[in-house]
Specification:
By secondary structure, the chain is an alpha+beta fold. It has twelve helices and 34 strands. The protein has four domains: about 80 residues, Alpha-Beta Plaits (2-Layer Sandwich), CATH 3.30.70.80; about 280 residues, Rossmann fold (3-Layer(aba) Sandwich), CATH 3.40.50; about 80 residues, Immunoglobulins (Immunoglobulin-like); about 100 residues, Immunoglobulin-like, CATH 2.60.40. The strands form eight sheets. The protein has a seven-stranded parallel beta sheet with strand order 9-10-8-12-14-15-16, sandwiched between helices. A five-stranded mixed beta sheet has the order 1-31-28-27-33, with no helix packed on it. The chain has a five-stranded mixed beta sheet with strand order 20-26-25-22-23, with no helix packed on it. Strand 17 and strand 18 form a beta hairpin. The chain is flat, with a radius of gyration of 30 Å. The N terminus is likely disordered.
C-alpha cells in the first residue's frame, strides 16, 4: 500500500492559512491508480536569475514536492498564470520578495525562470515531400489517418483554409487565453497542411489527409512563445486525448527540469511528441546543435533533407537526431488561403507527425502491454526508416528518412479466432446434481486452419475436454468455464461463461467500520506525524475495497481537519496529519460510500493521545 503525505504547516498560524487556501489538509494512502505527475527531484535552487526575472514582471515556475499549490503563492502576493497537474508546478509573476519567501518554504523544491521559444526559421523559397516518403501509397491502400488526433503546438491554424477546414477539430489559444486558436503568423498553418491537408483534388495533400487537427496556439504573431504556455498546451493535450503532437519551435537553451518533466509525463500518458531538430546546422555537419524540446529523450528529433535525400545544410546535427524528413522547398497551406514553399526542420517534423498518425490508424498494437501505443509507434518509425549517411543511426539523419509506406504496412490484421459459447448462458443457475450441457463453436476468418477443437476448462475441476459440446455434473458453487482454440498462426481465441450450481452464495448488503487505529512516525522520536487507519468490512466479514471514506479529525475536542479517500484491496485507508501537535485525537466517520452496500452509520469509539 502506498502512503502519501497529508499537508499541514509547522505552526497553528501556518495551518490556518493552508486551510483557508485549500479547504482541507488531509490526504490519504491507499491502492490508487498511478498518477502521471512525476515530482521533480530535490536539488539546490539557483534563484538569482529567477528572482531578477520575477522582479521585472516576468513569469517563473514554482516547483512543489507533490502537487501544485496556487493558493500558497497567491497568499504571499504572487499572481498565478497557470496551475499545472501535468507537473507539480505553477507559473506565476510577482515581486522578487514573494519568490524569495517561497524559496524557503518546505514544500517548494525550486524556482526556475520561464524561457522563450521561437518558431524554427521557415524561409520562403509541388508537394514533393509527401510523395517522397510514400504517403500516397498508404492513401491508395485506404489509410488516410482518419480520426487520429494530432496537436499542432505552433502559431495556430487558419481553420478557414479550404484544405484544412474539414480536418480542423478545435484547440485553444494559450497566448491570448481564449478558445479561438486562429493563426496570425502563418507558420502553424503551413505545418498543419503538411500533416493533414485534405485530399480534395485541389491544392496540396497532407501525409495523413483525414487526421483530426487540433490547434494549440503557443506562438504569437511574432513567432515567439513561452515554455509556460507550452506546458499548459501539453496538459491540454493529455486531458483531451491527443495522440501525436508536432513541435516546430525551439530554443538552444535548456529550459530545465520542469519543462522536461512536462514532456516526459505527457509521453508517459500516451502522447507521441515529434519536434524539429533545429536550423542551426552547418555545411560540414559538425557539432551537437539540436535544440529543445527536440533534444529531450521523450521527443523525436527530426532533421531535414532535400530532393536528393541529402541533409539540408541548415539542419541541426547531434546524437539526439532520430529521424529525417523532407524539409526543403516544402509547398503547403498559406495563412489567408493559397500555398507557399518554406524550408526548415519545421517543415520536416510534420512529415513524421503525419506518418505517426498513419501508423496509429493502421492499427498498431500495444505490444508491451503498458496501455499505450506511442512507444510502439516510435519504434516502428525508427525500424522502417530508410537508412541514410553512415550505416545505422548517425548524428545527421538519425535512423534515416521516414518511410510512411513501410511504417504503416502492418500486414494482415492480427485478429485471433472467434469463439462463442451457445449454452449455457453466462450467469445461469442450476440445482445441485443437475447435468449441464455446454456447447460452443470457433471460426477463423483470417488465415483459416484451426489446430485444435475447442478445449474446455473449469476454474475448479481443471481440464474437461477437447470437443464442441459435452455434458457434465459440477459440484455446488460458482464455476467459470472457458472454451479456447488456437489457429495455425499461434493466435488464441477464447470465451467464458460463469454459472452457479446449488444455492447462490449469500450477498453482503451493509458496510461498517471495523476499526480505527492510530500510529506515529517520522522525526527524531519517530512521533512527528499522526497516521489514522480506517478499516471497512461487509456484513459477511469481508474487507471492502474501493469504498470512499470521509473523516473529521479533532484534537482535544476542537476540529483540526478532514479528508476523503478510497480503501485499498485490504479494505483499509490511511490518513496522515503532518507535524501533529500534542493532544488527544478522535476521529469521526462522516460518510462511507461502497458500491452495492449501505453504510450502517456507526463510528467505533476511538482516541489517541500523544
Amino acid at each position: 500500500m502506498r502512503s502519501t503525505r497529508l499537508q499541514s504547516s509547522r505552526s497553528f498560524i501556518g495551518l490556518s492559512l493552508l486551510l483557508l487556501a485549500s479547504g482541507f489538509f488531509l490526504t490519504s494512502c491507499s491502492e490508487q491508480p498511478q498518477s502521471i505527475i512525476s515530482p521533480v527531484s530535490q536539488e539546490d535552487a539557483a534563484l538569482s536569475a529567477s528572482l531578477a526575472k520575477a522582479a521585472g514582471g516576468g513569469r517563473v515556475f514554482i516547483v512543489f514536492d507533490d502537487a501544485a499549490d496556487p493558493g500558497l503563492v497567491e497568499s504571499l502576493g504572487g499572481q498565478v498564470v497557470y496551475s499545472y497537474h501535468l507537473v507539480p508546478a505553477v507559473a506565476a509573476t510577482g515581486p522578487a520578495s514573494v519568490f524569495s519567501e517561497l524559496a524557503g518554504h518546505p514544500r517548494v523544491v525550486r524556482i526556475e525562470p520561464d524561457g522563450e521559444v521561437q518558431a524554427i526559421d521557415a524561409e520562403l523559397d509541388n508537394t514533393w515531400g509527401v510523395k517522397r516518403i510514400g504517403a500516397g501509397a498508404v492513401h491508395a491502400g485506404g489509410n488516410k489517418g482518419t480520426g487520429v488526433k494530432v496537436g499542432i503546438l505552433d502559431s495556430g491554424i487558419d481553420y478557414t483554409h479550404p484544405d484544412l477546414d474539414g480536418n480542423f477539430a478545435g484547440g485553444y489559444d494559450f497566448v491570448n487565453n481564449d478558445t479561438d486558436p486562429m493563426d496570425d503568423n502563418g507558420h502553424g498553418t503551413h505545418v498543419a497542411g503538411t500533416v493533414a491537408a485534405e485530399d480534395d483534388n485541389a491544392g496540396v495533400v497532407g501525409v495523413a489527409s483525414e487526421a483530426s487537427l487540433y490547434a494549440l496556439k503557443v506562438l504569437s504573431a511574432s513567432g515567439s512563445g513561452s515554455w509556460s504556455d507550452i506546458i499548459a498546451a501539453l496538459q491540454w493535450a493529455v486531458d483531451n486525448g491527443i495522440q501525436v503532437t508536432n513541435n516546430s519551435y525551439g530554443s538552444s537553451l535548456n529550459p530545465g527540469g520542469t519543462v522536461m518533466a512536462a514532456f516526459d509525463n505527457s509521453s508517459a500518458a500516451g502522447i507521441l511528441h515529434v519536434a524539429a531538430a533545429g536550423n542551426s546546422g552547418n555545411p560540414r555537419g559538425k557539432g551537437n546543435k539540436v535544440g529543445y524540446p527536440a533534444r529531450f529523450e521523450s521527443v523525436i528529433a527530426v532533421a531535414a533533407t532535400d530532393q536528393n535525400d541529402s541533409r539540408a545544410s541548415f539542419s541541426s546535427t547531434g546524437d539526439a537526431v532520430e529521424l529525417a524528413a523532407p524539409g526543403v522547398a516544402i509547398n503547403s497551406t498559406k495563412l489567408g488561403g493559397g500555398y507557399v514553399e518554406f524550408n526548415g526542420t519545421s517543415m520536416a517534423s510534420p512529415h513524421v507527425a503525419g506518418t505517426a498518425a498513419l501508423v496509429i490508424a493502421a492499427g498498431i498494437s500495444d505490444a508491451n502491454g503498458d496501455g499505450n501505443i506511442n512507444d510502439e509507434v516510435r519504434q516502428r518509425l525508427d525500424e522502417t526508416a530508410d537508412d541514410l549517411g553512415d550505416p545505422g543511426r548517425d548524428p545527421l539523419y538519425g535512423y534515416g528518412l521516414v518511410d510512411a509506406d513501410e511504417a504503416a504496412d502492418l500486414g494482415p490484421p492480427n485478429d485471433p479466432p472467434t469463439v462463442s459459447i451457445a449454452s449455457p448462458a453466462d450467469g445461469s443457475s442450476f440445482d445441485s446434481g443437475a447435468t449441464i450441457l455446454f456447447e460452443g463453436s470457433a471460426s477463423d476468418t483470417e488465415d483459416g486452419d484451426l489446430t485444435a477443437s475447442l478445449v474446455w476448462t473449469s476454474n475448479i475441476d481443471g481440464q474437461i475436454g477437447a470437443r464442441g459440446s459435452f455434458s457434465t455434473t459440477l459440484s455446488d458453487g460458482d464455476h467459470t468455464i472457458t472454451a479456447e482454440v488456437t489457429d495455425s498462426g499461434g493466435k488464441t481465441g477464447n470465451a467464458s461463461v460463469s454459472i452457479t450450481v446449488g444455492d447462490p452464495p449469500a450477498q453482503a448488503t451493509t458496510v461498517s467500520v471495523s476499526s480505527i487505529t492510530y500510529a506515529t512516525g517520522g522525526g527524531k522520536n519517530n512521533d512527528k506525524h499522526l497516521l489514522i487507519t480506517v478499516a471497512l468490512v461487509d456484513d459477511l466479514g469481508n474487507p471492502v475495497s474501493g469504498a470512499s471514506v470521509s473523516i473529521d479529525l479533532s484534537r482535544d475536542g476542537s476540529p483540526v481537519g478532514s479528508g476523503t479517500s478510497t480503501t485499498g484491496s485490504d479494505g483499509t485507508v490511511t490518513f496522515s496529519l503532518k507535524n501533529a501537535r500534542p493532544g488527544c485525537y478522535t476521529t469521526t466517520i462522516t460518510n462511507v460510500t461502497a458500491s452495492g452496500l449501505t453504510w450502517d452509520g456507526v463510528t467505533p469509539a476511538n482516541e489517541f493521545c500523544k
